[in-house]
Structure formats: structure tokens, C-alpha cells
Amino acid sequence: MGLFERYLSVWVGLAIVVGVLLGNQLPEQFALIASLEYAKVNLVIALLIWVMIYPMMVQIDFTAVKNVGKRPKGLLLTLVINWLIKPFTMAFLGWLFFKVFFATWVDPQTASEYIAGMILLGVAPCTAMVFVWSQLTKGDPNYTLVQVSVNDLIMVVAFAPICAFLLGVSDIQVPWETLLLSVFLYVVLPLIAGVLTRQLLNRHGDSQRLNAFVGQIKPWSMMGLLATVVLLFGLQAETILAQPQNIVLIAIPLLIQTYGIFFIAYFAAQKLKVEHAVAAPACMIATSNFFELAVAVAISLFGLHSGAALATVVGVLVEVPVMLSLVAFVNWCRSRYQHTISSNG
Q1: Which of 91, 132, 131 is nearest to 115 (CA)?
Q2: Residue 214: C-alpha distances to residues 55, 206, 275, 334 (Å)
Q3: For 55-73, what is each residue's pLDDT tens digit?
Q4: Residue 125: what are its φ and ψ, rounded to 5°?
Q5: Burial letters for 229-261: b for 16+ Cβ neighbours within 10 Å, e otherwise?
Q6: pTM of the model as a whole
Q7: Angle at CA 56, nearest 5°, toward 55 and 59?
């Protein structure tokens, strides 16, 4: 791991500070950026995420994707965590903290909206950022693609029913444009670009050209990540400074949920003897959230200035620092993890 990636958490921390400062000092400019959206998908953020993902898509070897079916445990793990465990633990933690622990600090209506926002985060597994976490943990890019794609297909049919059940609302309107456009922008489009680039560079079997190109564009992934962090925190700077106490209250159960789900997935992967290159992205998919979809649904159901919308935004704010800490943990434990599954074999 290079110097830049080794201290990525430091650069992200600086990006967070820069984002909040810029958002506070240049609110009109960030408001203009926020207005550049289609179907509640911010086009500038979409571009930056695309910059992050494209270098990883170039590395995907489709001739190896067909072999993923020979290792089904990693895929089954992320599906069980994402759809049978995560939404329900998020709902429980939301109720526990805002109806019991924080009941005297938050009025009942606002508490219900915070819980709703948390549920929306819990039912939306990550689509885009997983490719970043997979690369940072040396995950299998081919397997990661399959994991993300299968989750996206399930999300199309399962998101609305699970949300309706947990929220107690029968007429949830899923913003299909947001869902489908996000999947297209963050998975389909960069994947097509990556496949075409790979074929062009490797058409004569010259892997040196392909490897050289990947080496040149790989730093753009991290630059895209940092620019995205600056923009996200800049867009939410006023909220962060105006409601710091509420953000802390929301962040507490979200942090418990995030770390809790990760370690459930991590230890389950060990018990199942899933190899590290597959287990790492599986745990990351189970842990992180599709925040664009969650924010869009929260706004459409409860309004832009609702507690539900704020809760989904807090999910965005805590995700990158938390996921970086988990990346560090996964990399630190790699040899111990492999030794454990080998000795138990």
C-alpha cells in the first residue's frame, strides 16, 4: 500500500474539515451544485463516484466472473446479512435509542422520523462505494461485481415491501428513476466503459499496456473519493453546524449498527471459511448503505427538512470515516483471518 493510501484516513479527515469550512463560507456555490440533479441524483456527485469506480471496473476480468458460482458462500453471506438481518437490527436500534434511551431529549414525532430515516438506510445496501472498499482491502473485483449486481436486482423488488413493513406505511412510493438511474450511473455505465477499455488495451493479449493504464488511472479513485467527501460535507455544512447535538444522537445508533453488522458478517465469514478476498467486500457490502436512494425516499416521504431526511444525511456523514476504520481493521487482520480459516479447515 502506497503512502497516500496508507494515510487515507488522514486525508479524508482533512477533506471533511475542508468541506465543512467551504460549505459554511460558500453556501451559494454549494447550493448551486446541489441544484444540479436529476431524479434526486446529484450529477456532480455521480460524476465523482464514476471517477472512483471506473479504474476498478477496468480491472474486472469477465472471463473469471463465470467462476464466481463455484464459491457461493460469500454471495450467500452478503444476501443473508443485507436482507434478513440488517434492516431489522436497524429498526430495533432506532426504536431502542429514540423511544427509550433518548425519549426525554427528542419529541415523539421527531423521534419517529429519525427511526424512519435509519430504517431507509438499513434497507438500502451499498452500490457504488463498495468498489472502493473492495479495492482498498484487496478484494476480488470479479466477485465484488457479482455481489453488488445481485444485491441491486434484489433491491428492485425487495426495497419497497421491507420499507413498508418496517415503517408501517403501505403506500410507499419508490422513486424508481432514482433507483434505476443510480444503478445505471454507478454500476452499468462504468462497467461498460471498463469492459471496452480492457478489450481495447488487451486485444492483442498485451497485458503490459493494460497494467500500465491501470497504474496511471488508479490514483483517480482516491482523488474522486476525497472530492466526494469534500462535496458531501460542504453540502451538509449548515446542517452540521446548526444541529450538532441531534447529529450526535442519530450517529450513536448508526455507529453501533454499522460496527455490529460488520462484525456479525466478519465472524460469519470466518465460520464459513470464506477466503479473505471474498469475505472483505462481502462484509463491506453488508455494512455500508446506498445513501442516495435512502435520502431520496426520505425526502419524498417525509419532506426535505424532516427528521427522516436528516437521519439519512447523518448516515452519509458517518459512513466514510467508519468504513475507512473497518478497511484498516480488515487489512490488519488479513494474515490472522487466513490462518484462522486454514487451521479450522
Answers
A1: 91
A2: 7, 13, 25, 24
A3: 877 877 766 667 667 788 9
A4: -65, 150
A5: bbbbbbbbbebbeeeeebbebbbebbeebbebb
A6: 0.80
A7: 100
